[in-house]
Amino acid sequence: MKRHWRKLLASMAAVLAGLVVTTALLPASPASAAALTEVTGFGANPTGIRMYLYVPDRLPTKPAVLVAVHYCTGSGPAFYSGTEFKSLADQYGFIVIYPSTVRTGNCWDVSSPGALTHNGNSDPVGITSMVRYVQQRYNTDTARTFVTGASSGAMMTNVLLADYPDVFAGGAAFSGVPHTCFQASAGNPADPSQQAGWNSACANGQISKTPAQWGDAVRNSYPGYSGPRPRMQLWHGATDTTLHYNNFGEEIKQWTNVLGVSQTPVKTDTPQPGWTRTWYGNTSAQPPVQAISLAGVGHALPMPGQARMAISFFGLDQGTVPPSSSPTSSQPPLPGGCTASISLNSWNGGYVATVTVTAGSSALNGWTVDTTLPSGSAITNVWNANGSARTGAVSFTNVGFNGSVPAGGTTQFGFQGTGTGPAGATCR
């Protein structure tokens, strides 16, 4: 079993490296008093996990809450620094809880009997206590509490939606497995090895059940519950060898059954080259189940730009926050049209550019950003936009989900390149 955990830990070390790059994608933000803070004494916590909290400076009257659950080898502070949820919280005014496990290897318990039961005796209890603490302290909108996570955190996302459908309104799982797929093998439940044991059959994609069987696994985690069930967004790389891609299909079976919708997609599109997104139940922006498959991608999610799509699935990008008290908040909106600004994170021989598109006094229905790369610079990767070239004069156009920008609103895309990044950009 230790050998398999070492495999996962090594894989997640690679994910951590990718997340460090993602941190560089975040644009510089205005001076802020908001900071990640550790909270203690938040309630029932049978496994002694730790709570880190980010509360933006500006919040609506009843803010939403997002729980962001880290991967193996990670921590709450690492997930805070390595993902875009903090910057999105600043933009849209929601609170983010970053739990931290204290178990060896920093993987979550998603396999013990106590983890797979409503009000059990393991990690889900502590995470739910964090949520209730924040709901009471900050007078949040309890109908808008969501959870997301990567790898082990994605597994925990599945578990939390099953154990606590009365707490969470939705989840987004990046490279996970179905609820109960990782359950401990037969043995002594009191044995510590059963608390977060490796399940090779599940990891290798060898466990297949009917939709009803998977659905019953969710329903049996909270017997007698008859209320609404949370929506689910699922992400998986098609070449994932750590948590096999077969688990993606099993998750779809599970959550379509739980939510009572057909396994046949009602809509399919390609938000980025190589990404296949399917809707189940309806074609709204927040359907019961949505699934995104990424061709040629392994165990390395979330990638840049995906956090924003998860936020959109939750509906958290529709919130409004009070205006800043800074002098710029009273400035009139920009003239019609749009502007573009570039934030660069550079190193010797390369850079990552984050481009912010801002609409003027009129809403945008599609946009194009133009820039010129310095001699010797070449783009190697683009996200949340389509690019026309890789060197010289380059134009970027919106993809399907970020073409509409309200008057005075913003959207972002990014690209990575070799050499030196461009000094500026224009929008039309």
Automatic annotation (TrEMBL):
UniProt cross-references to InterPro entries, sorted A to Z: AB_hydrolase_fold, CBD2, CBM2/CBM3_carb-bd_dom_sf, CBM2_carb-bd_dom_sf, Esterase_phb, Plant_Biomass_Hydrol_Est
PANTHER family in the record: FERULOYL ESTERASE, UNNAMED PRODUCT-RELATED
Annotated signal sequence range: none
GO molecular function: hydrolase activity, hydrolyzing O-glycosyl compounds; polysaccharide binding
Source organism (scientific name): Actinoplanes teichomyceticus
Gene3D superfamilies membership: 2.60.40.290, alpha/beta hydrolase (3.40.50.1820)
Boundaries of every CBM2 domain copy: 331-428
Keywords: Hydrolase, Signal
Superkingdom as given in the UniProt entry: Bacteria
Pfam families with a match to the protein in the record: CBM_2, Esterase_PHB
SUPFAM superfamilies: alpha/beta-Hydrolases (SSF53474), Carbohydrate-binding domain (SSF49384)
Record protein name field: Poly(Hydroxyalkanoate) depolymerase family esterase
